[in-house]
Amino acid sequence: PVRSLTSGNAGKERTLAMIKPDGVSGNHTEKIKEAILESGFGIAKEIVTSFNEDSASRFYAEHSLKKFFVSLIKYITRGQVLVMVLEKENAVADWRSLMGPTDAQEAKISHPNSIRAMCGLNIEQNCVHGSDSLQSARREIAFFFGDMSSGSVNFSILNYISGLI
Ligand code: IDP
Question: What is residue 17's predicted lDDT score, i.e. its pLDDT?
């Protein structure tokens, strides 16, 4: 087939994917990236970083009143994470579907081919994150990679600064 030279990003959607500390320390990174590429996603951006309590609380602000919040912050700050911007048509929903349900134990039964079934341990330690809507995707991509148009401060710079204080 002849490929258009000007196709660029036309029709593509972006979502934020993250391999959480249990995924990185359990050496699941390569397997997960293979599954991502095999499913037709492009990896537009990638960064290895880590959360501190402050950045984690901001990232998960919508869960701040939940019972599991303190435990979630402890889990997500315990090691490095690999953050990626994935690109393809229908990227938000397709990455959620490839991840599988939040509870990795449930995933092993209902979605045995999902990433959470493959690498997750339970409802908390489920090895991957994915934006749940286009709006969250935009917010989360800007959180890590900055967004020149809104003048937000880059995540790694914030992390660096809070490390100095
Ligand atoms: P999601 O990651 O599948 O979108 P959310 O409900 O947005 O799920 O929750 C964010 C993260 O918080 C989950 O991925 C998981 O790590 C953790 N979490 C969610 N529900 C629970 C729970 O009931 N107990 C402990 N941790 C939870």
Answer: 98
Pocket flag, ligand 1, residue 93 (CB < 6 Å): no
20 is in an annotated binding site: yes
d(CA 160, CA 165): 9
Residue 85 to residue 145: CA distance in whole angstroms: 9
The pTM (predicted TM-score) of the whole model is 0.88
> Is 68 assigned to a binding site?
yes
HSE-CB of 17 using CA atoms within 13 angstroms:
35
Residue 129 annotated as catalytic: yes
Largest pairwise CA distance in the chain: 56
Is the ipTM above a cut-off of 0.90?
yes
Per the DSSP assignment, residues forming a β-bridge with 49 are 81
